[in-house]
Amino acid sequence: MKRVSAGLFPVLLAGLLISCGGGYKLAGKVENPAFEPIAGARVVLHYSGKRDSLVAQSDATGNFELQKIKERQVQIRITAEHYLPFLGTVEFTNPVLSRTFRLPYRQTRILGRVIDAQSGEPISNVRISIPDRHLNAFSDVDGRFVLTGPTLEAGYYQLQFTANGYRTEFKVAEVEEARDKNLGDVALTRLASRARARDRVEEEQAYRVKTEDTETTQNLSGYGTDPLVQRFLEENETFTLIQFRRLFSAAQLTPQQVQENLNIYIQRKLIEPIDANTFRSLVYQRRFSKPAKDKQAP
What we know:
With 298 residues, this protein is of the alpha+beta class. It contains 6 helices and 19 strands. The strands form 6 sheets. Strands 3-2-5-6 form a 4-stranded antiparallel β-sheet, with no helix packed on it. The chain is elongated.
């Protein structure tokens, strides 16, 4: 009688189990890159060239079992929310196989759609960027965009939306690791026509502010006020520190530099603090209180 090699014994035993209807057994575990269990992962096992499949789901500890597997070599696919799918081959050399499957994180994404504020129509070729992360994307013909990259991690980000013929828009988004952040519709406002823009400039040049100390009037540009800040102060009676910081996002100023600018406007009596985070525009106040003063004249 011939002796059976020790290396062939598991294979022969597995074949005997298959012939008896027992089949192979896969005892698996699904983990993330931090070696933490992934619960609720869907595990699908496919036989070669057949539609038959076995399905299991990982429990709270990441473990799952598939039994009565008919073939020695099978395809396996594992999917889980917030993770990239795993697709591979499992080959049995023993009746029972224990194996750990590790799924990589899916990259964080910021999604949305850019539309015209007036018409509601989608805007294509809008540049969406996070300058400090060197990330850029462009909206498609439907106005949709996907912003992602290896530098996009969990945290708060300020997104900048720029397009020809539209005002630059800024949005703050909080993203979580391996999760999509959907901003929904982001509306951009069209810039005024050249004629309207010229009229606007003339109005701004003609607009003068009466100082509290003297009757001398000075144009706001005499203060060295940035046009964007000047328009903001004219149109907003009160505002927060965060809103003021957004005015300087394109210049990528540090929080300290923004605070220095704010202090300058306060010293020049263009801004008045209400509390630590809220401010009042004296430009707005003077602009709309001036007609009332004229009516009081005898």
